[in-house]
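Protein in question filed below.

…
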Amino acid sequence: MATQQSKEHHVGEWASLRHTSPEIAEAIFEVANYDEKLAEEIWRQQGNDDVLFRAFDKTDADVLTWDDVVVERKNV
């Protein structure tokens, strides 16, 4: 569920443009404290454990994507 902050930062659109699951995008912005420049840097680095833990906590899905790269829950 998108928070007000994520709506204000257009996280869903941001995720779509980057071929990234919304859960991962939301987690990136949480870790970045909604700083868009920092969020972009975290996204570029790919694989931040804190982001992945938060993202999988937001869903029951076993697979998410980060820039078209498949991330499996079992590998986190």
